[in-house]
């Protein structure tokens, strides 16, 4: 199943990542995943 994500969402997520708001997911046990506690 293909999911299309609007470019604006990708750009916003990248900006949040670039600002350092993402951290290792669940104290580092996320197998490479990161998460941010910012919600809209």
Task: Please provide a brief summary of the model.
The chain is an alpha+beta fold. The chain has one helix at 7-18, and strands spanning 23-24, 34-35.
Description:
This protein is an alpha+beta fold and 40 residues long. The chain is flat. The chain has one domain. The chain has one helix spanning 7-18; strands at residues 23-24, 34-35. The model has no long low-confidence stretch (mean pLDDT 81). The protein has a two-stranded antiparallel ribbon. The N and C termini lie far apart (26 Å).
Number of domains: 1
The percent of residues in helical segments reads 25-40%
Strand content: 5-15%
Average pLDDT over all residues: 81
Kindly, what is the distance between the CA atoms of the first and last residues, rounded to a whole number of angstroms? 26 Å
């Amino acid at each position: 199943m293909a999911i299309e994500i609007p470019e604006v969402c990708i750009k916003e997520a990248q900006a949040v990542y670039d600002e350092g708001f993402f951290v290792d997911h669940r104290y580092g046990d996320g197998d490479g995943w990161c998460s941010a506690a910012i919600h809209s």
